[in-house]
Design goal:
- The structure is a single chain.
- The chain is an alpha/beta fold and 456 residues long.
- It is built from 15 helices and 15 strands.
- A hairpin with a 2-residue loop joins strand 14 and strand 15.
- Helix 8 packs parallel to helix 9, helix 13 runs parallel beside helix 15 and helix 14 crosses helix 15.
- The longest helix has 22 residues.
- The two termini are 23 Å apart.
- The structure holds pyridoxal-5'-phosphate.
- Pyridoxal-5'-phosphate binds next to helix 6.
- Keywords: Aminotransferase, Pyridoxal phosphate, Transferase.
């Protein structure tokens, strides 16, 4: 963020807090935007300037911030029992009730819940569960993982190794390499020249088949994929892709792991996107973010009795030696239950379908602006890709940091949109109104125009 402040907290932040994804160089000069208050989609910084947060925190403040009801629920649970040991045979009421609720909402036969502390640990758990399951069923060779370039799955060692975003693969970090394979990014905008969407889909399906043939289905444990890629550029894969890959996974005895950390809990108008948008019934689902709308940290890895029965039967001494002190944290689970109740009571899923159509339609008008190469996404998960040349789709030099340039301009006009290199990404609270949509699109459009003029 570009705003230079001087308060004691701002100085403390700059001096002592090393943030996730710190860009050492710019942080040294600019520091952070110090936020102090939030209500709905509105944020205030410590100087009292207000912003519309079209990013929804980090794809997570689904019901909007500052709700009294959430504060009450959280306070009540803290008074009642702020913590409970989740290991082995100890439990707590909110975690048990939430597991039941998630089993009701999840697609297909998914009905088991393993709690973690966020999206990365939900993915890490899914990765370990795949190993555990394949070993238990006597298929220890099935350890290879397929994922996609452009996919983002978090920042534990395993999650970042599964991640396929080249920009996040920093050479100073190490990654698991020999058993994780990244297939092409299913981005229709960047399909090889001359291919239409259907041909591109066939190409991706063929590539998947070839990879299975090359490695051998008996060596592949799982395929990890976001139904719509999020921070890799809000990429809706070509029509039919998710379902065809799922069918191939079923034919080849490969577990389909849907990373719904962003797409679940209403972001695209459904509890889970896999089945409702794409007709896929995953074997394993990871979720976090919108599960508590960011009020408290919580993640979950969901799977079915099909997997549970395999890992739970056989060797009597076997146990699932995985989990966290804060798995099934009662306060986080109570917050998640209330969050889900609010989404249901306020019909936020239908609202996202309705207002999301308007958001898509209004954002598409930005295509007329210079710099805008693509406007894409689904409902409340949208993105603008900026390019140097709309015909060739050639990008501007990375060093220009065009996304940040535009986001900084937007921020000066009270709008927060997330820059990711060439992109400006949006994932607003599900409560966003049509009037808010107009504000977001107008301010973003103005920021793009302003930036274009800056560059001349
Ligand atoms: N999976 C996806 C699709 C994500 O977008 C993210 C975070 O943005 C994660 C996993 C990691 O979640 P967390 O940051 O809560 O660990």
């Amino acid at each position: 963020m570009s705003k230079v402040m001087s308060s004691e907290s701002w100085q403390a932040d700059k001096r002592h807090w090393m943030h996730p994804w710190t860009h050492f160089d710019s942080f040294k000069d600019e520091g952070s935007l110090m936020l102090t208050r939030a209500k709905g989609a509105r944020l205030w910084d410590e100087q009292g300037t207000s912003y519309f947060d079209a990013v929804g925190g980090l794809w997570c403040t689904n019901i909007g911030l500052g709700r009294e009801e959430m504060a009450e629920t959280i306070a009540e649970q803290v008074r009642e029992m702020a913590y409970a040991n989740p290991f082995v045979d100890m439990s707590n009421v909110p975690a048990a009730q939430l597991a039941k609720k998630l089993a009701e909402l999840a697609p297909g036969d998914v009905n088991r819940v393993f709690y973690s502390c966020g999206g990365s640990t939900a993915i890490d758990t899914a990765f370990r569960l795949v190993h555990f399951y394949q070993n238990c069923r006597g298929k220890p060779a099935k350890k290879h993982i397929l994922a996609r370039k452009g996919g983002y799955h978090g920042s534990t060692y395993a999650a970042m190794s599964i991640t396929g975003k080249s920009g996040d693969k920093i050479p100073e970090f190490d990654y698991i390499q020999d058993t994780i394979h990244h297939l092409s990014c299913p981005n229709p905008y960047r399909a090889p020249a001359g291919m239409d969407e259907q041909q591109f889909c066939d190409f991706l399906v063929d590539e998947f088949k070839q990879k299975v043939a090359e490695l051998g289905a008996d060596k592949i444990g799982a395929f990890f994929a976001e139904p719509i890629l999020g921070s890799g550029g809000v990429i809706v894969p070509p029509e039919g892709y998710n379902c065809r890959i799922w069918e191939l996974c079923q034919e080849n005895d490969i577990l389909f792991v849907a990373d719904e950390v962003v797409t679940a809990f209403g972001r695209v108008g459904h509890w889970f996107a896999s089945e409702d948008l794409f007709g896929v019934q995953p074997d394993i689902i990871t979720c976090a973010k919108g599960l508590t709308s960011g009020y408290l940290p919580l993640g979950a890895t969901l799977f079915s009795d099909r997997i549970y029965d395999v890992i739970a039967t056989g060797d009597a001494d076997r146990y699932f030696a995985s989990g966290y002190t804060y798995s099934g944290h009662p306060v986080a689970c109570a917050a998640a239950l209330k969050n889900i109740e609010i989404i249901e009571r306020e019909n936020l899923l239908s609202r996202v379908v309705e207002v999301g159509a308007y958001f898509e339609q209004r954002l598409q008008t930005l295509r007329d602006l210079p710099l805008v190469g693509d406007v894409r996404g689904k409902r409340f998960m949208m993105c603008v890709e900026n390019v140097a040349d709309r015909n060739t789709k050639q990008l501007l030099p990375d060093e220009l940091n065009i996304g940040k340039w535009i986001s900084d301009r937007a921020e000066q006009n009270g709008l927060i949109v997330r820059p990711i290199v060439h992109l400006n990404v949006m994932s607003p609270p599900l409560t966003m109104s049509r009037k808010d949509v107009d504000f977001v699109v107008d301010k973003l459009g103005a920021a793009i125009e302003h930036t274009y003029h800056d560059l001349q």
